[in-house]
Amino acid sequence: MSNPAPALALTDAQRTVLEALAASQVASHREVQRAQVLLMAAEGLANEWIARVVGITPGTVRSWRTRFAEEGLTKLGKVRGGRGRKPVIPQSTIDEIVELTQNSKPEGHTHWSVRTMAAKTGVSPAQVQRIWSARGLKPHLVKTFKLSTDPKFEEKLIDVCGLYLNPPENAIVFCMDEKTSIQALDRSQPSLPMTRGRAGTMTHDYKRNGTTTLFAALEVATGKVIGSCVPKHRHDEFLVFLKTIEKEVPAGLQIHLVIDNYATHKHANVKAWLAKHPRFHLHFTPTSSSWLNLVERWFRELTEKALRRGVFHSVPDLIAKIEEYIEVNNADPKPLVWTADAESILEKVARGRVALQAVKQN
Predict the structure, then answer these.
(1) 183 has which bridge partners?
(2) Predicted local distance difference test score (pLDDT) of residue 87
(3) In angstroms, rounded to a whole number, what is the distance separating the alpha carbons of residues 168 and 147?
(4) End-to-end distance of the chain based on CA atoms, in angstroms?
(5) pTM of this prediction?
């Protein structure tokens, strides 16, 4: 072993910082190693011995000692310029990829893929993916949306959001809607159970065994659901469901229903019944704004958790499953919390209208 190098000179402040870093549980492993090396070097230990204890090369020990002697702690943990892999794609090529992604489509396709873009620009698919990921570009994805053209959009939006964020006292707020044409689907062959290394299976084809319609009212404050399955969804069935809600809600409480603009909800017989039951208050969502009704989110969970993978030999089987899901939901209800205020939504809608107008003009 060669003679030890001269002991590294440390001030009290430098030693305090290095000791804290050497014992750190959150600093990077490399930073902890560097602090340990410098503390040992301050004790006058040989570079080879330090390298063997810390698990690095003697050359690294010498490099760290030299750098500390030149720069102290000011650049500890920073990588010096000039190190690391150099960029292999010119900036002009990156700009071209971004421009093509955002403002063009490949011939015969609706959108770019990493392979079509790679073939177009002469880089690898992996490089295209890195460029897209760094800039949040996802040409393979598309989201659906539609801006409401309801002339009373703002008025209705403010009304519904107000119910969610600041519900009235001595009242219950329900989100109510119909989930129509729920199919009782039976598979052509039995499904195979999940086993180790293999997912459960289900045939792609099916047999239709009829449909049902679910009337559901989601209590916003608690997440409980009042539900009823019926063969049709006319105003007669809607009136029966309103009477069910009337029986379920204790007397003395006002009932506020968030509901869509379906003609059934505005039938003359419905209006006449509501006039005789003044504790009911209907709040209509704007047209093309089903996202504003929280029961739609509950319908999605019903589909994902109870219906999509279900096998139903008859409509009664389907109804039994829906009723079972409602029963389980009400045994341990979890409210769907609304957080967006009307002002923030209106700002997004305004930006959307500007964007659509720009597209139309182009």
Answers:
(1) 211
(2) 61
(3) 29
(4) 77
(5) 0.69
